[in-house]
Amino acid sequence: MSVREIPMYIDGKPVPSNSQEWRDVVNPATQEVVARVPFCSAEEVDRAVASAKEAFKTWRKVPLGKRMRIMLKLQALVREHTPELAALITEEHGKTLPDAEGEVGRGLEVIEHACSITSLQLGELAENAGTEIDVYTLNQPLGVGAGITAFNFPIMLPCFMFPLAIATGNTFVLKPSEQDPSSTMRLVELAHEAGVPAGVLNVVHGGPDVANQIADHTDIKALSFIGSSHVGSLLYNRAAAAGKRMQAMMGAKNHCVVMPDANRSQAINNLLGSAFGAAGQRCMANSVVVLVGEAKAWIDDIVDGARNMKVGPGTQRDADLGPLVSPAARERVIRLIDAGEQEGAKLLVDGRGYEVSGYEHGNFVGPTVFADVTPEMTIYREEIFGPVLCVVSVDTLDKAIEFVNANPNGNGTSIFTNSGWVARRFESDIDVGQVGINVPIPVPVAYFSFTGSRGSKLGDLGPNGKQAIAFWTQTKTVTARWFEPENVSSGINSTISLS
Known about the structure:
single chain; alpha/beta; six-stranded mixed beta sheet; 17 helices; 22% strand
């Protein structure tokens, strides 16, 4: 099998990198090298930014209707090429093909939202705010925007960034994850096939040096980041010091609260899918289940369900979860399972040492379930990003809310209940950005904003929805009065009155 070399994308075309540093992109089910990705030089990053800066001069003046039609064409192309994109995701990330197809669908939601740009970017007008004076606002693009994405959603996360950024008239520089870049690159090719002009959307690759250069670059006006809390915090501070607008969606420790009045089978099946789907490599995975009152008796069903989940390569359509993205990720998850045992948690299902016939070199960890987990344990404090579920039992809804709110992170949470009063109380009192009611992974549809809180988010405005339009535009307020041709001034006016 030939190993593809991942290019940059600058000035509307793929460009080979001259970098001396390259990394292998590996199929996590087989350890086969499927691609090589460059770590771009500082000069190559500067070239991409310069291309975007030059393209902004004309792209910002392209009519809204034309930008909308490009987004309409892009969504049609992405829909048509979903199987191809999903196959690339599975090959390099490892998630199952149905999961990868679902990811492409969630990315499509954002592109479809961007198709409404003709109404999303409207300003406001007050006629006769003063005597023959009109006041109105213009929502104008910022300039060059940038995005840095994590490996776990190589299609969805770029879609959280560049479609709305370029639809609002900005140009863009994207740095995808070096672990699974091929599907992202194919998405960018489709964007240009849809009519995105040269220079409007550029791609560079690399690690911390490239990310820091993007955060520091004076010609980049806004930066969107999705990834770990450690990296996000560092980049947020660097970008702020450089005068950039910044949004950072970061780490999580999500909780699924199960009330005893919930539909038992629905709740258990949903929480298992949330905890173990994509091998737990989702920032919105519910990695902690909080059983309230009599629901603590359901733990045997949770254990049985976890044991019966099917682990296999992502190409195996009936598999519930595939491998972790890398050997390093697998080793880290196993270390954390070891720590859970050592610190006194009760290991009910052990996914260590998991092997899949025919894929003995794959990065597999089976579903793992711990009970008697306490807040000071490492498996609770850290985001495991693997198929590990922590089970906690409390007596009341109040205790469950208190427990969830005490965690430093606030990305997502869910509650399973048949009581409207309980659900309303939970959504009101919980301090978490995304809340699901009988929904296990509460990622909102794209015309609502992604709204993490506390340690999971830095920056006031999140991706998608109306907040994304505000993030990628700046408001200019105009106060205007037009005099009649024969109007003569009655004298100097030294006040600030508009009457």
